[in-house]
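User: Show me a protein chain along with its predicted structure.
Assistant: Here is one chain, sequence first, then structure tokens.
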Amino acid sequence: MSDGISYRLGILSGSLKGFENEEDLVTLVKSRKNKHINKNEYTGTI
């Protein structure tokens, strides 16, 4: 989602990704949820 945030010599820098509509956000959440579920199935934990 982001390249990360860094703080060096008193300067905060980084980048964030934004979404213009709700459908994009819903798609992101569903894909992350599926990845989490698949990972738990592989390890056998919930």
